[in-house]
Fold this protein.
Amino acid sequence: MNKERILALADLIEQQLHTTPSAPIGFTMSDYVHSCGTPACIAGWAAWESENQPDFLDWRQVDFKATKYLGLDQETSEKLFEPEGVSSWFEITPAHAAFTLRHLARAGVVDWAAYGRAALMEKADA
């Protein structure tokens, strides 16, 4: 696992607007790439970075390139790129995705629910 790239990707995704696949730019977990070929989800953004930010990203190679770029095994990449336990992939915001990436870098596991638990703990502390 390449923690440096995972953390850099978290920073990059956190800066994006939460959008839809039909948008020209931004972040959404509901598709690999936007309709114009720009990156959309975690895998899309990682593949885009692996190719030095091309003008057009071919969705057919996204999983493979992202997995290799982030140094993930197949099981970890599936858990990261295909979230379980989330009611709708579209509801995953850039902040949620960035939190999950940072948790992966720190703990070595993908845990999409950790974001919600952290938010509940913050409320309890307030």
